[in-house]
Amino acid sequence: MPSTTLRSTLARSAARPPWSAAVWRDTRFIAAGIPLALPTWLIVTAPKVVTLIVLGLLLLLIRPLTGLQRGRLRALRGVEVPPLLRPVGSPAGLLLTLRTGVSWRQVGYHLLVGPLVAAGAVALVYAWGAGLVGSTVLGWAWLMPATAPVRHQWYQLDVPLTAGGLALLAVLPGAVALLARLDELAAVRMLGPGRREALEHRIEEVVESRAGLVDAVDAERRRIERDLHDGAQQRLTSLAMNLGLARRTLKDASPAAMQVIVEAHEEAQAAIDELRDLVRGLHPAVLEDRGLDAALSGIAARAPLPVRLDVQLAERIAPTVEAVAYFTVSEALTNVAKHARASRVDLSVRTVGGRLRLVVSDDGVGGADAARGTGLTGLGKRAASVDGTLSVLSPLGGPTTITVELPCVL
Fold this sequence. Notes:
Blueprint: H1 2-13, H2 19-32, H3 38-45, H4 48-60, H5 62-77, H6 91-99, H7 101-135, H8 137-143, H9 149-191, H10 195-249, H11 255-282, H12 285-290, H13 292-302, E1 307-312, H14 319-340, E2 345-352, E3 355-362, H15 375-384, E4 389-393, E5 400-407
Parallel strand pairs: 1-2
Antiparallel strand pairs: 2-3, 3-5, 4-5
Helix pairs in contact: 2-5, 2-9, 3-4, 6-7, 7-9, 8-9, 10-11, 13-14, 14-15
């Protein structure tokens, strides 16, 4: 952020290096900007037709010129100016240059601030020379032969010239420091992204990181599903088979022992059923193997009320979006079964304009309201996790229609 950079710049100024080193550093910094202002000087001094051509070239050269200015600030001042958030330097970038405030600030720096700083730098360099020459007039006059005609003229001006040179040398460090500081602050303000552009970039980063987090959670859920399916579920299945075999073969066991075996066998069967439901709730294998259509068909078949399913998908969508769509439909059907008192459900799944549209309709009593903290709130949050939307139409007396739109690709 520019404000942060300004604060760090002012903080660094509180601990400046020794006087001579600071003057030399500031002088190098402003002198290094003189060559970078040459394109602007060409625009000012060239004829009008050539000026237009050079101006167009300058717009195309904004990116490399800005890069050189950033390098000057980084090498000679230790200031890191954030780069552009939009590319400039191509025909498409030229259009963005004409439309974005970031690039126009850079054009303003290269057309106005840079040349003014360069002119000031040239003046200060000449002033250094004049100060050095003026402050040594007395010495030069003393070194001249006594018979030299010009020595008498120099003796008449030695005191004012020496005093003027010394005064100039005394004032120049402050002028150099001021010009260097102004150039640095202007560059930070005008060569980097503004607050709006930085916020937009931050939002893009947050969206990308959220998408990565959703993908990571989905991948972890798949891993847990595979571990449970291939590990704990297989062990429980083997245990249940052994208990079933013991139940059938140990005919001479005591009634108490047989009762323990029977109860253990039934508990193992129940644990397998619960684990199977848990694995399906984490990430159903059919969703990864056969896609959303087959997975939704399984949900419809297991639903406690009739579900008429209509799925038309042009192509396979992103796995993370498939998982969100699957669990959204599963939770929606569970809510209908618990609260709607419906006799049937219509489920429509379409891909429209690069988005997946899910429509769940029932003939229940209606009155569903996501604002009251019902299961619809969870559906909305699940859809929002992948930049999806949820809308509910549920008048009292029914019917209720839940529409969910999800992006096909993250």
